[in-house]
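Subject: mismatched residue count in predicted assembly?

I count 1462 residues in my input, but I want to confirm that the predicted structure covers every chain. Input:
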Amino acid sequence: MTNTCKYSNNYSSSYFKRMKFFAIFLLSITYAALNGQISTISSPGNIVTLTFSMNPDGQPQYSILYKGKEVIQNSTLGVLFAEGKMVNGLLVTGMDTTSYNDKWTPVLGEVKTIQNNYKQLVVKLMDNGDKPKEMSIIFRVFDDGVGFRYHFPFQKNLAHFVVTDELSRFHLTGDHKAWWIPADYDTNEYTYSTSRLSEVNAKKQSDLHLEIGVRKVVDEYGVQTPLMMKTAEGLYINIHEAALVNYPAIQLHVDKINHELSSSLVPDTYGNKAYLQAPFSTPWRTIIISDKSTDILSSKLILNLNEPCKIKDISWVKPCKMIGIWWEMHVGKSTWDYAGTQDMHSWENLSNLKPTGKHGATTANTKRYIDFAAKNGFDGVLVEGWNVGWEDWNGKWKEDVFDFITPYPDYDVKELSAYAASKKIKIIMHHETSGSVTNYERWMDKAYSFMKENGYDAVKTGYVGKIIPRGEHHDGQWMVNHYNRVAAKTAEQKIMVDMHEPVRPTGMNRTYPNWFANEAARGNEFNAWSTGNPPEHETILPFTRLMGGPMDYTPGIFQIKLEKYGKKDNYVHTTLAKQLALYVTMYSPLQMAADLPENYEAQPDAFKFIRDVAVDWDDTKIIEAEPGDFITIARKAKRSKKWFVGAITDENSRVATVPLDFLDKGSNYVITIYKDASDAHWFKNPMAYRIEKFLVDSGSTLNIPLVEGGGFAASVIPATQTNIKGLKKYE
Amino acid sequence: MTNTCKYSNNYSSSYFKRMKFFAIFLLSITYAALNGQISTISSPGNIVTLTFSMNPDGQPQYSILYKGKEVIQNSTLGVLFAEGKMVNGLLVTGMDTTSYNDKWTPVLGEVKTIQNNYKQLVVKLMDNGDKPKEMSIIFRVFDDGVGFRYHFPFQKNLAHFVVTDELSRFHLTGDHKAWWIPADYDTNEYTYSTSRLSEVNAKKQSDLHLEIGVRKVVDEYGVQTPLMMKTAEGLYINIHEAALVNYPAIQLHVDKINHELSSSLVPDTYGNKAYLQAPFSTPWRTIIISDKSTDILSSKLILNLNEPCKIKDISWVKPCKMIGIWWEMHVGKSTWDYAGTQDMHSWENLSNLKPTGKHGATTANTKRYIDFAAKNGFDGVLVEGWNVGWEDWNGKWKEDVFDFITPYPDYDVKELSAYAASKKIKIIMHHETSGSVTNYERWMDKAYSFMKENGYDAVKTGYVGKIIPRGEHHDGQWMVNHYNRVAAKTAEQKIMVDMHEPVRPTGMNRTYPNWFANEAARGNEFNAWSTGNPPEHETILPFTRLMGGPMDYTPGIFQIKLEKYGKKDNYVHTTLAKQLALYVTMYSPLQMAADLPENYEAQPDAFKFIRDVAVDWDDTKIIEAEPGDFITIARKAKRSKKWFVGAITDENSRVATVPLDFLDKGSNYVITIYKDASDAHWFKNPMAYRIEKFLVDSGSTLNIPLVEGGGFAASVIPATQTNIKGLKKYE
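Triage response: the counts match. Full output below for your records.
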């Protein structure tokens, strides 16, 4: 059936004609004025200046200065859709400048309060066709960068439209050094390449990574965001997006000749980018700029551009330190599956599975982890492989693969819920979708009800595999809407969520603080079964992936070499001390002590750091940092006087210098330093560490040597009569 | 993350080698024997004979004789998949013949019991590669035709596979006359074309139908099934499929030169046809053959090939006669939407809708329909437009369009549930998905719970619009799985379901009798707002669309000309008497009296037939029929001695001759005949009818003149002392 309707128009008196004529005349004068004009706004502290203008083709363009020097040359903006375009021949119909300056409190965060201080310019545009369309570009200028987005207001000539391309340009001033991963519609699990922009080759780089299950690189010269860059003059520039809602992820195409980046959106099966309805605002495109690399890491620009928290009652939103039945499967000690993945009889005959005896997620094993968690002050135990479906889950593009509510015969849900509750530990649910998202969405309501009925209030989700709906990609609009739906639904159910293999985050943890972590990058697990993560990897991630939000990196591996498990070619590429430091340098309100309990029991003195470290913070100091080289951070635990320090380095040794001037003046503190032994080395002798305790105060400065691929971690607690006994002052 | 596992094989003794060698030798001899052999099986009554053989290229082929004459010449079979093919170079590894003969009782049906009597041949095949794959072809030979399907058994060398093409051929003996609609991935709502197969032009035909919202014709020479044909010798052949499960719909490509039809499956966005896992059986391809056209209509071959009823407790599975707030919207008297479809403000601002006053589904109007239904013995009232979302629902490819649980402000769910219950009437739920199936699947559980909580136990669904997931089609595998999911889920919830705009049915109403009707063809509604349905339309549908299952055709329009509603170019293309006959000639356990109550109140004498007619049957006699020309059917109501007769004709007048020899011998009956007035004509004078009553018995023969586009309907009830008063015998 079809629905045919008529629309009638009753205007036609000559009075109206004359009024229309006069209005057009007036508007023409205004338009002429506006379109000749160049509009400049500066950040509140006059550090960043944005200039907007229209070029002779009627294209909107902007440029950015940082402390008076050009960072972004004139770069055009525009949007193409199936029903038309807002690209050239546009007219400015209005401009509006406002200021904003306020504080807000993140529910979970790196700091207690965040200042949001910017100048905003709204430019209203119209095309010059016979059915003119309207579009605004909104610029917000901060002292550490710029955000801009497109807005399509409610309007007569544009209702439903399909974006076929976005033409946002970033015309850089040179062939900057960049830390990048290939633009890929389905994965962000690459190691980072460091090169000039002109040397980017996404396809070549992608083909080196056969260990990544699903890859889809289409543009040889495409890179993902967050993109970290450094100019020859030592200026740091980071490009990403904020508030990715109902739109595909942005990627960047590199024009090697002109040093220009242009937006490239992830398509659906038809090559369309987004199906939209006005009024609509795109995500913010963010450009964070500073001459200090530490400013990049401490920037709150992306969070500030996100919508405030949507959850009314946030009493249940909590951080989490967890362990899990997980690494033992990655190192091959046990399996996710119950009946083996090679016996085809177990692939569909779910009622008659024959156990191999290697299943990890058993009632007994889970109790063991619960006991360990309770003994060591953890909040939760993640259990992967608890549910039927693992015999035939991966790489088959199979739709009906898990139902998220049926446990294996050896995993007793009720018994374990009671046991966990008695130990005041939460079991963390696991929902591996295997990329079959239509299946997951069919089960979501039941799966979340099942969780609540059985005392689970946090879930780790996964998207390993090609996406179903077939034709969609991990980073396309449909999947972005899915991840956001999950965040909203879990919030409704008072469930915390940690997503693995989704699109990389864009600050939505402000709006949905229950969405407290993501993987969305190459995590520690790759060390277990591939060439792994080079020593510099963790010195890059905070400048790239973590700009958009916390990462569930799963640090804390003590048994660095995996030959013990029969994997002689696999190992973590850091020292043990660096693994401890990661709890500070890789911000996440959800942190995992990823190793097996027995490996922690073997080194209880080092493990104490993990037991002590906080995951939620009142303050953060980025002490020193250089992308790809080193990071040193100090953080103050929430509602506490305790500080924790972490320093990491790449494949080069160095000395980390840390002035403790953030400590309360006039107070003494006890510092416990967990550092590399002098003969440690990430490859040759990774597990050698030393622990030292000293007295310190705000006048102290630490100088701690880090070996190749090494690090140090430290806890700094107020001195008491008891804990200072026998300690010397640090020098 | 990826999951890498190793598979180890421990067989290698020389004993096993020798045994393997001997087995291969023995098998070779057997294979040679089997592969030279021609295998012939005949139907139980020796009417249909199927011959199977392997051609010199190692391709399986079959041919069919009917009463000794060739109907299908040697036609090859095979399947192509991404991982290989089972097409040529195949070996027969086994053949097995069995017989089957049993009765079964449909829950709802045209007859009380159905005989299932066939001979079956199973041919086991293997390819000759180094990792040989296995496939069986199963043939069932009935006295009125053949069904065959492919089966992939559980096997070592084939687990998950993707069908890229099915190569089933039907090599006809000539350029038969055919009644066809274009092969279209998304719609079956075409008028039928009657032509020789060589004259098929699907694209040209499709382009004549701009009134159909979503069309997707790819093959100029493609037609849909069920395909009805008639040879020059007067033999009737119908090709379709049975038990469409986890597979796309079959369509047929016409080779005009060789008079050969070949299977063409509906693809997904990648051109793949089906994602499968062995063991798997394809749907049955069905070929119904008879020299009597009435045998085609009475064939139970397709139902017999379907799986038995899956519902354990069938006490709640009931037929339904309904009226509905529906036609008044189609004729423009009211609207589905509440706030108009032109005011863009109402397209997303769902909390502030301003009523136009034209909304059809109001509490008051629904009560009016409930009263009418109660007064006239109907079971239910369908209400369309009860739920928020109609302001912006169609043609926008919009995903989040309805939530299926939020009523408009003027539709009081609770009040109406109570009112309907007090009148012992059921309100029938309406779920228009608008093709946004991912949205519907997210809401299904809640939507069905909402139904049960509010006393609704039947739902009419709709799929108007382009499908989301984008890239999928109405007739592809993913959507087939969706419709089947809906049937299973509603069955679990004891809900009856009537689907509009789905893939055409294939006998699954045997397996899920709650799935009691579909539209899936061009229904009566097209007369309200398009060029409509020509007079021959209803004489074709039972030979085509209805071969796969009942149709919710929505007959019973009394106000034939729609000028009364301001639609002077729209009208139904039949007489009123023919509208009555359709309740008998268009089988469905769900029948709608589609017109507005006032039009029935204006002709209560004619309306009596609709009030009286049954919808569920103990027996059916196909009296006479010719596709495209006329159909006359008599049916006996379930658990009753009443019979109902219906006769329809195309644009030609005729006399319907109906021997009443099916009546109980020695009993008298009262017949009430509703026929065209002598000066009636579907266009010139459609609403003129006469009602006559007579006495009849099993010796009587009716001869009723039908005008152009006309018909007659009759109820035949046992004579009693009261009802025979004043009646003459029919002569």
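Chain B has three domains: 1-35, 36-304, 320-612. Marking this ticket as 'not a bug'.
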